[in-house]
């Protein structure tokens, strides 16, 4: 098993608002993929066979945002998650935990509340000296 995680979904109640939030804080473009009963906005990856992918998902209520329950996913905040955290409040979210060192070898973490009410973590690895 190369990665413990192969896919993640972040629940949304307003796919447009959530898309704008994540595109703003990560300065990326999410790709739309709409099925009959589910709307998705895919995070960009280069190779779906070797990289972990994920999406924002509006499933009409099957997925429910939560600020306190369920698994906590860590999104890639490299090269420095502080750059992402700096954009959170202006994009409509809230910083729950500032950039915090985990350890010198494991890097840093931070925590945010997105526009949908999801608690999402960020991780960045230390820059080699």
Instruction: Let me know the largest β-sheet.
Output: 4 strands, mixed
SSE ordering: EHEEEEHEEE
**Which spans have pLDDT < 50 for at least 5 consecutive residues?**
none
Q: How many domain units?
A: 1
- Which structural class is indicated by helix and strand composition? alpha/beta
What can be said about this structure in brief?
This protein is α/β, with parallel strands linked by helices. It is 16% helix and 35% strand.
List keywords for this structure.
2 helices, four-stranded mixed beta sheet, single chain, alpha/beta, 129 residues, 16% helix, 2,3-Dihydroxybiphenyl 1,2-Dioxygenase, domain 1
Secondary-structure blueprint:
Elements: E1 7-11, H1 15-26, E2 31-34, E3 39-42, E4 53-58, E5 74-76, H2 81-88, E6 94-103, E7 107-113, E8 119-124
Parallel strand pairs: 1-4, 5-8
Antiparallel strand pairs: 2-3, 3-4, 6-7, 7-8
Helix pairs in contact: 1-2
């Amino acid at each position: 098993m190369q990665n413990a995680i192969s896919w993640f979904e972040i629940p949304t109640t307003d796919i447009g608002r959530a898309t704008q939030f994540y595109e703003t804080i990560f300065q990326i473009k999410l790709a739309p993929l709409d099925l009959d009963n589910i709307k998705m906005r895919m995070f960009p990856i280069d190779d779906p066979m070797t990289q972990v992918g994920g999406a924002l998902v509006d499933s009409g209520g099957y997925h429910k945002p939560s600020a306190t329950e369920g698994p906590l996913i860590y999104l890639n905040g490299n090269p420095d998650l502080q750059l992402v955290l700096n954009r959170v409040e202006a994009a409509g979210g809230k910083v729950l935990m500032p950039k915090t060192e985990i350890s010198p070898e494991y890097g840093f973490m931070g925590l945010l509340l997105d526009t949908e009410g999801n608690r999402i973590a960020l991780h960045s690895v230390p820059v080699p000296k």
